Amino acid sequence: MSEGESSAIWADALRVARLVAADPHGCGGVVVRAGAGPVRDRWLDIVRENLNPGKPLRRMPAGIAEDRLIGGLDLAATLVAGRPVAQAGLLAEADGGLLVAAMAERMGQGTAAHLAAALDTGRLRVERDGLAETRPARFGLVLLDEGIGEDEAAPASLTDRLAFHIDLTTVPPSAMRPVLRPPCDSLSPESETPPHGGAPSGHDPVAELSEVAARLGIASLRAPLLALRVARLLARLDGRAETAEADAREAARLVLGHRATRLPEHESAPGGEPEEGEPSPPEQAPPEQREPGPDPEEGTGQASEDRIVEAARAAIPAGLLAMLLRDGPRLRMPRAGKAGAKAVSARSGRPMGARPGDPRRARLDLIATLRAASPWQGLRRRAEGGGTCLMIRPDDIRITRFRQRTETTTIFTVDASGSSALERLAEAKGAVELLLAEAYTRRDKVALVAFRGAGAELVLAPTRSLVRARRGLAALPGGGGTPLAAGIDAAGQLALGVRRGGGTPVVVMLTDGRANVARSGIAGRERAGEDSLKAARLFREADVRAILIDTAQRPQDSARRLAAAMGARYLPLPHADAGAMSAAIRSARE
Predict the structure, then answer these.
(1) Which residues pair with 400 in a beta bridge?
(2) How far is CA 414 from CA 461, 486, 515, 535, 574, in A?
(3) I want to staple 429 with a disulfide (CB 3.0 to 4.6 A). Which of 260, 452, 473, 570 is the partner?
(4) Looking at the domain that runs over 206-263+303-328, which CATH code has it been given?
């Protein structure tokens, strides 16, 4: 990236920092994509310098506990007073200022839900530990995203509520310049109207920003609302009561550009050359011969919208712009370690709160136990005739709940009969290799079951080894009949074995659903079809997640009926290669 581009990104980052500091809750906040370093630290210092005196700036660690986040019982004060004493959480402490969340790409869903609720309402309702209270929590959120690649990002439920997104990963320290606190009028873009004039004729920022969001393919209603708030903030900081078109352009550039999901069409091109094949515009009369009335060149509503769209289009990040020009947005890759099903564990995993229980069978949560016992100390001491000892009853005992994700095993069950082998066996092999390449980041395994001739065989046992997978796939033959029932039985047995070992099985079956070999090995379509439906119903009783990919040249009713009997998701892919097949499987599995 050139020095000029880096300086432009840094200039936008400074503008965002001042806008967020001027109205934290109104702007929602900002996502800062950057690793730890001098550039990010300097940007945070500028935010702190621009915050009005008295507005707090609090930092939230990545693994913050729920009671520290939203508040709860003040344990020390409660033990002294003998009655419940409330303690404010970090969200309430950040009221009126900014909350900086580190390592946002690793934020848990519970923490993100509390932050989203506070951003929506500006209040924090706490009902826990015998307490019920509401505290103000009007703050702005700064999400520090240190993720690498597209598969690591801050929670979408929060980024949708924040007006700005800046990427400082490509900005070198040399692009930073000494920054002084500017006067308010320098915060707004150069306006085309007088400093205290009204809005220009025909200018409606609400309608224009909504139309621009629609043309950029932005489905969220929060995006134009946030852009409107930013436009009004720009006008207010410039000392104007009404927003100008330049404010709307700046707001669209900063708020809507990075949210685009498609490139806007050019509905009009004022002042531009006509395209080839289009009639030239008629010549206009000299000014002295025109009839009285508004000048069409002074800017119509459509031309204003086009200028705002172009401002937003210019702000689309280079990587996103290249993606939109090529083939549209891609599906997000799955996060590492997020594929398995959630399972409750007694002593290992991620802590998920406390509950009453027996500490001999699980881990004692001492702090939660003291919280449960502390409100009753005054009453218990009076009942016991005094004393200063801490009195804990069996009902006060709390144990820690843990939750961890189990390992996922994707079981490919491939129809390797004569016709299917010619059509889809090569694609199935390629899809297995593509998904297996993600095994280390996803912490999952891949297995392969093939059915052909008179029965089914386990070609590849559950593994992460790419060498073993390629060796097994290369030796997979094709041809013969279609013993569909045997393939379903083999996939079900392997899935139950994976489940008994503590894993999460996902069966991906590639077939056209047309069986011609029964369980007994005798050829015959009618008997084979009945056996395959019986096997599918038994498979459904095992409650295993399954995906059936119809590999025929046209979607088949037989495959659709089989998927319904198995309780599987039906995916017809008549013209798919290995990449498209693996992408569809990945999306359905998620």
Answers:
(1) 354
(2) 14, 12, 13, 16, 16
(3) 473
(4) 1.10.8
Domain ranges in the chain with CATH number 3.40.50.300: 3-175
Angle at 380 between CA 375 and CA 383, to 5 degrees: 150
SS in 3 state form for 363-386? CECHHHHHHHHHHHHHHHHHHCCC
The segment(s) of the chain belonging to CATH 1.10.8 are 206-263+303-328
CA angle centred on 200, ends 196 and 205, rounded to 5°: 100
Q: How many CB atoms lie within 10 A of CB 201?
A: 10
State CA 158 to chain mean position distance: 9
Question: Residue 360 and residue 20: Cα distance in Å, rounded?
Answer: 51
Low-confidence ranges of the chain (pLDDT < 50): 179-201, 267-299, 328-339
Domain 408-589: which CATH class? alpha beta
Residue with tokens 């939750």, as numbered in its chain: 403
Which residues does 146 contact at the CB level (< 8 Å), separation at least 6?
34, 35, 36, 103, 104, 105
Q: Model confidence over 337-353: pLDDT tens digits? A: 444 555 555 555 566 66
521 in Cβ contact with 455 (< 8 Å): yes
What tokens does 494 get?
Answer: 């392997």
Residue 416: the pLDDT is: 79
Cα torsion 410, 415, 421, 422 to 10°: value is -100
Residue 1, token pair as written in the block: 């990236």
- Residue 80 amino acid letter: V
In the 3-class helix/strand/coil scheme, how is 283-345 assigned residue by residue? CCCCHHHCCCCCCHHHCCHHHHHHHHHHHHHHCCCHHHHHHHHHCCCCCCCCCCCCCCCEEEE
Q: Mean pLDDT for the chain? A: 76
Q: Which amino acid is at 569?
A: R
Residue ranges, CATH 3.40.50.410, the chain: 408-589
pTM: 0.58
- Of residues 190, 287, 285, 286, the one with CA closest to residue 244: 190
CA-based radius of gyration for the chain: 31
pLDDT for the residue numbered 490: 92
What lies within 8 Å, CB to CB, of 404 at 6+ separation is: 342, 343, 345, 348, 349, 350
Residue 446, SS3? Answer: strand
Strand pairing partners for 405?
342
Class of domain 3-175 as given by CATH: alpha beta
